[in-house]
Amino acid sequence: MINKLFSYNIDYNLSKDIDIVQYNILPIKQYDLYILVATSDINQDPKPIIKLLNSPIKFIYIQKIYLEYEYKYIKTKIKLYQLALQALDDDITTQTNSYTTQFLNIILQLCIQNNISDIHFESLKNDLLIRLRFDGVLNQFFKFDKKLYSMISSIIKFLAHLDISQKRLPLNGRFGKQIDGDEFDFRISTMPTIYGESIVLRILNNKNIQKNLDSIGFGKSDLNKIYKNLSLTQGLILVTGPTGSGKTTTLYSMLNHLNQSSKKIITIEDPVEYKLDGIMQVNLNPQIELDYYTVLKNILRQDPDILLIGEIRDTLSAKIAIRAALTGHLVIATLHTNNSIETITRLIDLKIEPYLISSTLKMIIAQRLVRKLCNDCKQYDNQTKLYIPKGCAKCNLMGYINRTVVAEILEIDKDIASKISQNQKIKIDNFRSLNTVAQELLDQGIISKEEFLSKIDYDI
Ligand SMILES: [Zn+2]
């Protein structure tokens, strides 16, 4: 069902001094003759509301969850609304005026506190729209007069040392900021659109990647396999999956586990997104010919114990990963494949000799990131015997809250290694495929059928 509130620029000043929760309303906008007021109660008596707002009113009816979603952030939204008005009132010539800065700070703080990954500032025909990505899905958060857009755009570009006047070409940058006592990095992308511009702020929250391997969703027996292989002094460990499957989180959790002073760890990343203490991170920079080839060819002379290769993308990077793994290094890398068996085929496609694969490859983790159903609102469907998402204020109307890794783990034992080296078809007994693992989560009511079908898209 469509949330009708999303089409309005809500005047939050109308909610400032009244207890909207108690009256089960949200005043939307002051028109010439009345105030438009949202309620979820078809039988709501208008008289107390008319008295409360001291004005004639007109009701629109919306679902209760949409009101509750507004109530969840109402204090912040009232504050944002007031700052936005003050920013417009302020001298426009001071592009980076303090009201806009405060406005942006409040949004950044809210996003960090709510574990939001991306903030979208979009100029529509008449409005500025702010949308936030919760657990991988965008949701409308705040809408305001478009005049505010250029001020926000300027302040963001200013923070990232970008050209404030450049609105016709895409720009990329980043800035760091202290929020609630911690330092956070923000990556910025701007893009000209037909109604102006769109800015996306990615929050590079180091807390998200400083996760313990135990906490990201691997099962106990899978964890034991991972820890066992991470204790090896040489060999290749591959983490695979499509974009958005949580590979980075898994890689960094592994690095956190391995990060001891007695080991030299070098990472090659394009680009480095999260800075880690105690680890030599190499940021590729093709503009000065610091590309994969140059770095990989020279990296082993840096005497690493552990090497993290952001992505094996071609024959050369695959060969260097294999060579490093053969010569006394533990190599961790990602590969863009869907499952563990396909990963081996892909390495052969990249012209790696099967005998080299079988002698270096230790483990493949093929993974996906799936959204977990919100326990507060999920509903049991008698027909399918499964839980379905509904949406409530706690999960920001999504029906889902937090995510978990679903993974299949293939350890390359002697038997599999010999099959690889002889180029034989691999068949494994007792193999827990992605499908099996995800099916268990589905049966337990942790994930939905919808999420299962959209993320676990193959059958082994
Ligand atoms: Zn919920």
Explain what the structure shows:
The protein is α/β, with parallel strands linked by helices and 460 residues long. The chain folds into 3 domains: 1-64, no CATH class; 73-204, Beta-Lactamase (2-Layer Sandwich), CATH 3.30.450.90; 208-455, P-loop containing nucleotide triphosphate hydrolases (Rossmann fold, 3-Layer(aba) Sandwich). The protein contains 16 helices and 18 strands. It has helices spanning 20-23, 46-53, 64-72, 74-89, 98-113, 147-159, 206-209, 220-230, 247-258, 292-299, 315-326, 340-349, 354-360, 414-421, 434-443, 449-455, and strands at residues 25-30, 35-39, 57-61, 118-123, 127-134, 137-145, 171-179, 182-193, 196-204, 235-240, 265-269, 280-283, 306-309, 330-335, 361-373, 379-381, 386-388, 400-411. A hairpin with a 4-residue loop joins strand 1 (25-30) and strand 2. Helix 4 packs antiparallel against helix 5 (98-113) and helix 13 runs antiparallel to helix 14. The two termini are 36 Å apart. The protein binds zinc ion. Residues 374, 376-377, 391-392, 394-395, 399 line the site of zinc ion.
